[in-house]
Predict the structure.
Amino acid sequence: MDLPSEVFRWKIHDTFAGGVPDAFYAGPVSTLFVEYKYVKAFPKRDTSPIRTSLSTQQIHWLNRLHDLNQPVAVVIGCEKLAVVLTNKTWSEYIPKQDFLSKAVQFADIPKWIHNKTCIEAV
């Protein structure tokens, strides 16, 4: 599913302020900042953590936006699956088994964004 036209989207590319989230979305109900990370391969063991490679600056931006009551998320993709992290859970390690149990199809992320910005009160 692609995002419907009612969702304004901005791919943020800021060469002056490091750590700014990758994208900003806005709809009639809410806005949303999203940082995207992609992991090339799952670790072998179920208890091994998925490494997101969030930088210190990225974590600072995400936490600051969250503390300012701005909707913010980190989407971690691996293969064709993705996990959406909210409420500062991006600072925690995610074991492979937890990732797999919480994962959705990567193609379902646009629907989640649409729901957050156009349907649900955040």
